[in-house]
Fold these 3 entries.
Entry 1:
Amino acid sequence: MIDPNDPERGRLRLHLDPLLLLGLLAASGIGLIVLYSAGQQSSQLLLAQGIRLGLGFVILLALAQTPPRYFRIWSPWIYLAGILLLLAVLVAGDISKGARRWLDLGVMRFQPSEIMKLAVPMMIAWFFANRPLPPKLWHLLSGAAITAVPFALIVVQPDLGTALVVGCAGAFALFLAGLSWTILLGLAGLLGAAIPLFWTFGMRDYQRQRVLTFLDPESDPLGAGYHIIQSKIAIGSGGIYGKGWLNGTQSHLDFLPEGSTDFIFAAFAEEFGLIGGCLLLVLYFFIIARGLYIAVCAPDTYSRLLAGTVTLIFFIYAFVNAGMVSGLLPVVGLPLPLFSYGGTSMVTIMAGFGMLMSIHSHHARRRS
Amino acid sequence: MKTWRPFAREPLTREKDDTAESELFFRRALLMLGMVLLGLLTVGGRLVYLQVLNHERFTTLADNNRIRLQPLPPTRGFIFDRNGVLLADNLASYHLEITREQVRDLDATLAALRERIELTDLDIERFRRLLQRSPPYLGVPLRFRLTDEEIARLAIDLHQLPGVDIKADLARRYPLGAHLVHVVGYVGRIDENEMRRIDLGQYRGSTHIGKIGIERSYEDVLRGRAGWQQVETNAEGRPLRVLNREPPTPGQHLHLTIDVRLQMAAARALEGHTGAVVALDPRNGEVLALVSQPDYDPNPFVNGIDVASYRALNTSPDRPLINRALRGVYPPGSTIKPLMALAGLEHGTVNRHSGVYCPGHYRLPGSSHRFRCWRRSGHGSVSMDRAIAQSCDVYFYSLAVNLGIEKFHAFLSQFDLGRPTGIDLPAEASALLPSPEWKRRVHQQPWFAGDTVSFGIGQGYFLTTPLQLAHSTSIIAQKGAHFQPRLLHAIEDPGTRVKTPEAPRAQPRVEVRNPQFWDTIKSGMIQVVEGGTASRIRSPHYRIAGKTGTSQVFTLGQSQRYDARRLPRHLQDHALFVAFAPFEEPRIAVAVIVEHGGGGGATAAPIARRVLDAYLLERYDDAILAEIQTATRDARTHDDRPE
């Protein structure tokens, strides 16, 4: 987009953050290599994923060229549209696998809940942009409401994974905005008390089953616990150096379920071992640190909050996925960002990074 | 940090303090970065725990103790005829398998095997292709159907050839081979189209599926249900012990309504011709014999027929792969005349005694075109009985024109002409009972009066299958009682040996105004054999009612004469005959079609007579009985059979 106030208007300049881009490209490149092995060396699978990644980077580039103040102007509208779409899903969405998540637009199907992963931090950032920080209680409650409405709409679909991301997005935004420690600790206490209630009334059977299976996967080795057991075997048998690319027995002999999607981290750790796994964690840390650095350097409240939250969403994806695959966390259907086969969340993540780059490059240039 | 004062009023005008906010944000972001670091370190620590501290354990789990779920394919049910003669069973067969992982030098092993047994280049090529797609610890088949001698030769040296195994499996076998291929069909290897169609879970471990015939239509009954076992295997993939087991449920045995003796007698009667014989029990719709000639041996199809043999079958001008009884469509010719007469009676167009004068040809009013009677000199004045007995064409031309095509169409539909009879075999043809509506739709032409004339003698667009003819003859024999033709006689549980007989599939009766109409046309049909066009097959032992037919393959010009000697064989007329017997209490209805056989009375009727004799007098050639005995002798080695 062209900024009429841009002093350098007319001069072609690509708004990018080279360091962040390098990190993303490295991660997606490794992702493709791992996918080739985990997807039984299907070039078709690889091509599809490559096309998706390409599309993601195009979106990233497009958003990076858009000055951040446009994001700010759009924020409430995107949020409102997202809420309306979520309501539409509730009324007229397609049901698949027992959950009503998809909206059929004729041309394509998509999950409006995906929008909310970005719309919630945008809305909260917008809301706090002109209000003094740290926020007052009423402002905090408004911020919580901004999160709670879509969260509730997604929980009833039900889509635990996405709801978790949206909830975390709201919580991180509020925390970064300066949520006082007293409230934070109070909430933590409340949450501790609410968990037993939630367990009894708020969870579906299959979700409860997931938690139980997580606590004792060996109890159901052929059913629910099979994923975790096989995934742990895959990681553990990889050892320090790994079995080598294309040599993973767990993934290649079909012992590892969903090896190219949600459990691709296990396939990776099996073939590349502790060294590969740690390198990947370092790479993720680099991306996240760069994102937070961009947030800290941002010139205004809106950009700061948005950049910080988007970065932390990325972290949540990586942490929850790696944690679930390695048996630290319950099985929540979150993909490993830039690795897992599949497109929906990739677009969201790339769009988020696009906004990050926009925030950094536009303001950095103005400074110089 | 601020003190907890949630409801304290702060000045509304409090300004945003950018420096303070930016510092606050910096602190918070730093905290978050710490949290991120902590989270990633936790994951890293978990990796260390799994990959370093517990590496041995997980390696063992992954490599040495692969617990595998092995499918246990069910054994397929056998197929018997109505008297318990074995038509299909499973024979132990041995194949040679190589497990890549255990072979040190593959080429040397193959060379060593080549010295001992016959291995074609094709075998080896196929083996190498399969090898690339299989995990190294799984055995890959190299040669199927080892002979006893080959097994003996291999067994001696097997210990010197690591990774080489002789594996037993069950192969489908059809002891009577070609005689029943058009009924029983065969099984073959599951192909890619079938992969998409079937429930793969149920076919785990199975390699074969019913392709045609009974094997296909009763696939679900014959197949049974797959079981599984959980086995602990070592690093080489060898099962060490079975942990848990759910045995497969074997498929059910099928008993067919076919009488193999009759089936073979019919085939023998038809020998030398291409054509079909269908024999039904009119009292219940049971198919007693269903012959389509030529036939072929189904056994080579089970494990993949070689290309040359298949091409020979497929391109043979006699088209042996076609099941003529179900899929051959022929103009019914004069065999349809009794039903035409019945339609005339039902609608009051004619009565038993009304006569028509046959001068040897028929002319539509206002037209000069002559429709010829088969007897050029004409039949003179004919009543219904004589019209059927002598097959007078002019009588039926006139009847057809007077009644009209619409009424015929409605009436004949009740006899399942022009639509599948619903027999329990796949891919039955509908054939064609034409109507003006059909002609408009398909040919974009109106129905002409001339079309009705040729329809009257079962020519023109009218097409039927041999099965439909036998079926409609059954309905006449039973005076309207209507049963769906079926091949399934009973289902036998292989465990308990309890047989569940299949009930007749009764359909709504064909009703006529006056039940005596049935007797009228039946009396016409008895006169066909007792003084009419088929008098040569009259039997001293029982009374046969029948109807001859000769259906034209092509239309003669106005002045031409049909002369079989001057026509190439593929243009010669088809010979047809339908019959039921004994007249008083019919127990069998037959339809015979001899392709390019000439006259129905001369060629087809004697074949029908032989079939009727065999069945009603139980007169079977010793040669046939001996062949059945020889072919199914092996069945006695299935010692669980009571026979």
Entry 2:
Amino acid sequence: MRGDDRLTRGRGRYTADLHVDGCLEAAFVRSPVPHADLLGIDTTAARDMPGVAAVLTADDLTDVGDVPTMFGTDDSPPWRPLAADRVRHEGEAVAMVVADDRYRAEDAAAAVRLDLRRRPGHAAPGRAGRTDRLYPDHDDLALEKEFGPPVADATWTNAHIVIDSRYRQQLLAPTSLEARAILVEPGALLTVHCSHQYPHGLRTGIAGAFGLAEDDVRVIVPDAGGAFGSKSPTYPEYLAVVAAARRLQRPVRWIEDRTEALTSASRGRGQDQHVRLAADADGRILAIDLQVDADIGAHPLGAALPGQTALAASEAYAVGEVHATFRSWFTTTAPTYAYRGAGRPEAAYAVERAVDELAAALHLDPAELRRRNFVREFPYDTPTGRRYDSGDYAACLDRCLELLEPDRWRGARERPTGVGIACYVERSGGEPGILEEYGSVTVDPSGFTARVGTSSTGQPHHTVFAQLVADRLGVPADTVDLVEGDTGEVPEGHGTFASRSTQMGGAALAGAADALVDEARAQAADRWGLTADDVAWDKGVLRAGTRELPVAELAPLHAEHRFTSPPAFPYGSYGAVVEIDPELGAVHLLRLVAVDDYGTVLDHTATHGQTLGSIAQGLGQVLIEGVVLDDEGATVMPDGLLDYLLPTAAEMPRDLRVDETAVPAPDNPLGVKGAGEAGCIGVPPAVVNAVADAIRPLGGDPARLRMPLTPQVVWEALGGERSDGEGRG
Amino acid sequence: MELDVNGARHEVTAEPRRALADVLRDDLGLTGTHLGCEHGVCGTCTVLLDGEPVRSCLVLAVQAVGHEVRTVEGLAEDDPLPGAFAEHHALQCGFCTPGFLMLLRGALDEDPTVVDDDGRLDALLASNLCRCTGYEGIRNAAKVAAPREH
């Protein structure tokens, strides 16, 4: 991929690698407790320490606007860059030290004294046990929404069977290996270098908070070390760093450390789920009801995100009655926000676990039960308001089963073995407001420059998009340069998330390339006294009869395209084979199968990489990952990444079978659907369904399975007695 | 202090508490060594100390005096690992890549047969974390970059 030659030789330029003369370092003083009144901050000692340029608290930032929420509520309570009067989650920033060196900044941060009066904390969503609301003027129920008409009482009472299950989506730490990072250079043009998914959004956020015109702020995303959904907001720390740089008239940077990332940065998932299915005796699903209670943290950064789960409640099934509600609860924890999948893994888990329980209760083959219920005609309008664009869900499942070979494993091994499948439908491209993207192509004497409003945090946009534009123009890829992730170079854009970059940005670039060809033909026609219809574009050369003109001679030539479309609905079928050690509860993954439909695929290497990476993150959620909190919301992870476990090479199954089907997206000129999130959606329910399959014959209770499937969890589901308390995740 | 990094000697003045990674990055400008966790778990900061992979976030710069330090910038021009990583899509965001390259360079120099056994290779690669690739490309790149005859 383009850029790999730099990145494999140590010549990457991530935000922390940028050298700016005179740059100061910021370190934050953070709340050590989940909830407290902040009675005072004593910065006297810190200010006098060597190398310290400034110590800022909320009182110094009164002229800075509130932190913008991304998916907030209509009446979000004010969120200050540094907490004033009250801290509402562990790790909330209350003061910032700026010094000439990171070590000295941290020395001084450690010398700041906080006067805190503890308040009770609440880590769990829901009303139970609450004695103290987080905001005096706001109920702890931050947001509540309903999708689809309620299921009729008669449907439940007349159904042959009702499955009633509760699941927990544990909090996950996104954990890009590069944590958050920002470097701000003050001046008439405020220049912000930031590891970010949405540079234009960050520009808007900063401009808004400081009363600047957007043109007075330039956001540049250098090499970015992963994001996975977590790097799209305008975080409070970013506003504090901007404020310090403007106040001191010096460049200031903040490079988040891992302890901060694990205790104070945004997290993903975080839902208590209650799902009910009604079905007839043949396994036809008559109704789905999904209720989500989400712990959204202390600030409503992602309060509306559980709507993604509710909207997806139909999953792959044509079900007449589907009703979904979510309630987002303030909790004294770091904000819950987007993490790869952002609402869709949660929905797929709830529905696919329950569908499997239905199959088990009816003694039906789980694949056959799914086939009986699949959506088969498109477009399909779900009761919760989605319009599925296209697909052949049964073909995808069939391919999955071919690769999984479910019958091969029954009774074939000494230890208990289970086979599980899961199907999902997700939404890619985004929601109204970001279902548009900007692309342009410019010709100058040196070649073509494509500009697009997406922003790579590790995705090979430079390779895929340059090739796309080159193919469209019929020119070699090495004559096309791609520019993105710089608001000074790209006038508008919506960044990279929601698996939208190729679907939206790629389509915008294709449109821009087509517009460039049209414009070149028109200009050549003018020159030659012809009409555009008389002029042909031939691999970068304009021809009419014997006349020819290389497009570079028309330079500068520029064409733009703004692409809009409805979202697309990628889907997939996943399968897992597990072996259980009944003595220890350990789960061994014998085979994992992923068959996804991303529509038309432009670059199979790139999508394969996305699939594998997302599978690894799905394995993380189902097997080992989970933020551990006490009941009040304090993290119980004293040893960092030794407590918050990420998948290593040793966790990746050796027998991993990945394939694709390809039903083109009808609403996309390239036929493309998003490909970034599939694996983490399909893997968790497939693996848990496999473990459930393994423990049922042993008398185990699948209802006791919860993620992550630690040996203790599985052992307990097999009837082992719980011996100690564990925090909630 | 005097540090021997990538075959060159560097005079550095640094507090005794400074980590080797910070001195490499900030004092010597060798920013190819990345910091992912600063508590010795992720392996992103892996460098070679006398040929052996170490976490440069857990080594003080003063402890490196008298030893040969090698960073990703010091990989030989004809080292097959960088090309193999690119060829096998063993990187996406690239942040962990220098750590994996140095882990593998040290391991392959020590014993190239480590790639012949899946279990041994995974145990080695499990030293470091990658959040993007799912490791398949890294496994494949390691195998291809190992010397043919061993």
Entry 3:
Amino acid sequence: MKKLVILGAGTGGTLIANKLRKKLPSAQWQITIVDKEPDHVYQPGFLFIPFGIYESRQVVKPRKKFIPAGVQYIESVIEKVNPATNIVELANGTQLTYDYLIVATGVDIAPYETPGLAGAEWHKSIFDFYTLEGATRLQTALSNFKEGNLVISIVELPFKCPVAPLEFAFLADSYLRKKGIREKVNIFYTTPLPGAFTKPKATKILGELLEKKGIQLIPDFNIEEVDNSDKKLVSYDGRTVPFDLLTIIPVNMGAEYIGRSGMGDDMNFVPTNKHTLQSVQWENVFVLGDAANIPTSKAGSVVHFAAEILYENFLYAIEGKPLTASFDGHANCFIVTGIGEGTLIDFNYDVEPLPGSFPLPVIGPMKLLKINRLNYLGKMAFKWAYWNLLIKGRHMPISTKMSMSGKETD
Amino acid sequence: MTQRTYAGIAVDVNDEGYFTQSSVWTPEIAKAVATEEGIDLTDRHIAVLNFIREKTAKGEALSLRSIGKSGIVDAKQFYELFPGAPLKKASRIAGIAKPSSCV
């Protein structure tokens, strides 16, 4: 009996467990999946909780519901992996041996990495929306917010879902307008990047959108500390931004056991071949999704596309064949640009987000880098597809590899 | 692509002034580039530049965090050495490509 252990039962782990269980004969392969928490959360939904568009019950379901029959599910914190001896040690005392390991434990926020961030104002006037608790508390704070400075800040790159803080800023603008208090609020957006986004075309379009909505961009802003007593952000170059309400994207780091196991870089991301998705160091270890250090977005769509490639290469690996499936870094993200409106970007390792059209079957074609209602509806419809198709490993009507079809180049 | 002369050596640079070939770099060339950026290079600067070049040669991404943990400078001191936009300035003076972020 061969043993596959999957660490993490989030988007990637659950999806790959479903796909591989269907493929690998139960008589020959034992599959075990480990996660530390009982709830599977629909992370794209966190964005909508602060604005009362979603309630927490809409984004949480029991993990077990999505783990297929024939896969052993263990709920425990992971203590350590010893990749030299192929053993996973769990905090509950269990030791799991494996022939193959898939690391899919994602990333988490690490507010304690920034001086003053996890201080007296944390979850009082400073909130994240990358956890259910943060997003829920922020909902209360926003509904009580009357006037002053609303600051949205990114501490450091890379972080999960790179468009989320922009979407938060756009939704906050809409929300405050609907409440009739927009003119009493200054919205600031601080980022370590030189502009609104990373790549030129999307940066220009999204930067213009911030300006149009009266959201003030503060670029090249690297936070040194959060001053809790004066409620202000301080940058390394001595600039300060005072806040009444701060929504922050803290440093994002890989799981702590990655660090304890000596498997990661200084942010606990696992060095991974960006095309094969195999660990750089260990042949029987594959890395899926945000846990990897590959140079693409940390996002659900990327996990989905990467899982298709990892699946193929895993099957090659166990047959001793060369890993010929190659991941192109494909990402596809709806971006909410206000309540009821959105845009769409589609890109990979080599091609930046471009304008044009995107041939999504059934509801498409969608417009890329153009704002319309259909893109908002696409984003909202995705929740159904996530719970019912994606994590169950069923077919999604979207291509794994990025296509240039419909894209406008210069 | 254009050519500029630093310390008597002709160097190919892109339109933002970043070297297109990092192998031509020497500390003397760096001193001349630094003067353009308004920086008088010290041994401490050179130590940081060497660290940056070594990281880049190994294919590792540069970040404020990794430089801050280099043991040569912390993040605050890195800002003091290369004021304004330290990663961009230091990369240009180190003769490597402009640091890019993936999406």
